[in-house]
Here is the input.
Amino acid sequence: MAFTMIELIMVILVLGILASLAMPRLERETKQEAADQILSAIRYTQHLALIDHKHLFNNKKWQRRLWHIRFGTCSSEDETRYYAIGSDNDASGSDNAEFSKSEAATDPISSKPLFWKNGESCNKGDSGTEEVSSEIFITQKYGVKNVESSGGCASAKHIGFDHLGRPFHGKKFSNSDQADYSGYMKERCTFTFTMQDEETFAIHIEPETGYAFIGGQLGS
Here is the structure.
């Protein structure tokens, strides 16, 4: 049975209305997926710290060895955001919490390194992107266009954990040359993520316990 032009137009209109209703939900789901993935990455970092004691009493730079997660920008040209998880095991990294690929954590699903070098282009298909976990490229995967830190981790887009799961402030531990606990975080850290549609979500990390949760979702 053939459709008339009016019937076809009506079908197109109905499909358009359904699509317009579905889009906001899809956007909300993408934001939630991004929040869940990043929260999982932070908790994975803390888990690694709990099972791998990095405190060396004979090394005054021991805090640099803490397992930590850092958020970076691939290159000034594309402004793509990523995260990396690792431990500067030889304490030779910079105050931006850099570590080498061999010191990076492994994605438990793909078995690939959770690593990228700050400032290095990471457009899909670039050399090296296939050798690391695709989960880390949060702009490409979810549309996250910016990351900001405040509170206990202000001025540094990274945070570390010790063997008790306690959080350490970014700048304090990543350029520490003291055998003390100067990097120990004393107030809540908040990472705020901005999506391409300007929607935002926040992940909070509590002092002392290192408990991390999505803003507005305490039980997350």
Remarks:
- Helices lie at 5-51, 138-142, 170-174.
- The longest strand covers residues 144-151.
